[in-house]
Design a protein that fits this description.
The chain is an all-beta fold. Helices cover about 0% and strands about 55% of the residues.
């Protein structure tokens, strides 16, 4: 029903910034919610940031104050601005959407924070 194209991942130094983009194949205006999750090697996938249809945002404690989730409905795109990156932010980041009773996932994009 919907596919995502993610971009923006890569290698960045500690204290640096990256912006991840998640472009959907159709309108996101009717999505119940969208978010970003991440999964580090050997760890469970965890919520990073989430935004509901009415604009309410939620963040994991570990990223609060450093990451910002935003959406541009006209571009069918959700962003994750990541500032003051730490080595522990290294993970594969996944775009996520809840559409009625179905959950959809992007392919994931690697973020590596290292000197």
């Amino acid at each position: 029903q919907v596919q995502f194209v993610e971009s923006g991942g890569g290698l960045v130094q500690p204290r640096g910034s990256l912006r991840l983009s998640c472009a959907a194949s159709r309108s996101i205006s009717t999505f119940d919610g969208m978010g970003w999750y991440r999964q580090a090697p050997g760890k469970q996938r965890e919520l990073v940031a989430h935004i509901t249809a009415d604009g309410t945002t939620n963040y994991a404690v570990a990223v609060t104050g450093r990451f910002t989730i935003a959406r541009d409905n006209a571009k069918n795109t959700v962003y994750l601005q990541m500032n003051a990156l730490k080595r522990e932010d290294t993970a594969v980041y996944f775009c996520n959407a809840d559409v009625q009773t179905k959950t959809y996932w992007g392919q994931g994009t690697q973020v590596t924070v290292s000197s």
